C-alpha cells in the first residue's frame, strides 16, 4: 500500500468536532482518522473549531465585506451562502495553484458545488461523495462540462440510483462507523431516537409511535431547527418521552446500548442513515420507516420497517423489534457498517486513480 497525500474537503458550515452536528461531520471525522491510521497523510479542510487531533486546516470562512449597494441588490443571497461560497472558492483556487505539489488526490466530502465545478482546474484527481439526493446546484456543477472529470462515489445503492440521470456511474462506498468505539450495551426496556432534530428526521413521529406502543423513549441530538423543535417536538415531551441533549460519541453509545430498540423515522428518502449503523454496533435492533437506504442496511434479524410515516404501523412493530437478537445487530454492524470497510474501499479507489 502506497502512502498517499489526501486533501479531504469537509463542511464549511459545521466544525468536525464532537458533539457532531450530524452524520456527515461524524463520518468525515472517522474517515480522516481511519485513513491516517493506514499511513496516509490526510489534510482536512474544515470549518473553524474542528477537532485539533485532526490537524485540520480551517477553510477561509470569513465575513465578506459588501457595499450597501450590493447588499440591497435583489439577487443578494443569504450571508451563510455567501460565506460558504467564498470559503470553497478560496480553497479551490489554492488547490489549482499548486495543489498537485502537495496532494495526490482530492476527496470532496462536502455538499458544496464548487469543488465539482472547479475540478477541471486541478492537476490531480478529484473524488466526490454523493451524500444527499440530487440538488440543483450540484447537478448544475456536474453538467458544466460535457465529460465531468470527477470520480463519484455514493453512500448507498439508493443514493447512486437517485443520481443516475446526472451521474451514470457512481461507485457505492457506504459510510462506516468505528465498531471499536461503538460497543454493545446490555439493552433495556425503553426506546431511543438519535439524530438532528429537524422535520425530515421525524422525531415527533417517533414520540407518537412510542407513546402508542406504551414504551418510554429518550431522544438525543442537535436541535438544528429550533422553531420545529419548539412547535412540534417540545409539546410532546413528558415523563415517557425525554430529550436528553446533544451528546458526544461516548454518551450516545451508552444511551444506544441501554435501549431495547432504536427508532429511525425519516420523512425524506434517507441516503444512508449513520444512526442505524451506530445503533446496530451497540447491539440495539432498529425499528423504523422504510425510506431511502434503510432497507439496504437492515436485515430481518436486526431491524423491522413500517411503511413511510405509518405511525400506527411502526408502533405495532416496536414489541417485536425489542425482542430481536442483539448479537445479530452487532454482527450486522461488524460485517456491513464498519469504518474499516469504508476506509479500505477509499484507499483502493485512491490507489487506482493515482497510478
Structural overview:
The protein is an alpha/beta fold and 355 residues long. The chain folds into two domains: 5-176 and 338-353, Rossmann fold (3-Layer(aba) Sandwich), CATH 3.40.50; 191-336, 3-Layer(aba) Sandwich (Rossmann fold). Helices cover 38% and strands 14% of the residues. The protein has 14 helices and 13 strands. The chain has helices at 23-37, 68-71, 79-98, 114-117, 136-142, 157-162, 203-213, 226-233, 249-257, 274-281, 294-297, 311-322, 326-336, 339-353, and strands at residues 5-9, 41-46, 57-58, 105-108, 126-130, 151-154, 171-172, 191-194, 217-220, 241-243, 261-264, 286-289, 303-306. The strands form two sheets. Strands 3-2-1-4-5-6-7 form a seven-stranded parallel beta sheet. A six-stranded parallel beta sheet has the order 10-9-8-11-12-13, with helices on both faces. Helix 1 links the parallel strand 1 and strand 2 (41-46).
Which features characterize this protein?
seven-stranded parallel sheet; about 350 residues; alpha/beta; six-stranded parallel sheet; Rossmann fold
Sum this structure up briefly.
The chain is an alpha/beta fold and 355 residues long.
- Strand-residue proportion: 5-15%
Structural class: alpha/beta
CATH topology of the largest domain: Rossmann fold
Largest sheet: 7 strands, parallel
Listing every helix as H and every strand as E from the N terminus to the C terminus, the arrangement reads EHEEHHEHEHEHEEHEHEHEHEHEHHH
Indicate the percent of residues in helices: 25-40%
User: How many strands in all?
Assistant: 13
**CATH hierarchy: architecture of the largest domain:** 3-Layer(aba) Sandwich
Strand order of the largest sheet: 3-2-1-4-5-6-7
Number of helices: 14
User: How many discrete structural domains?
Assistant: 2
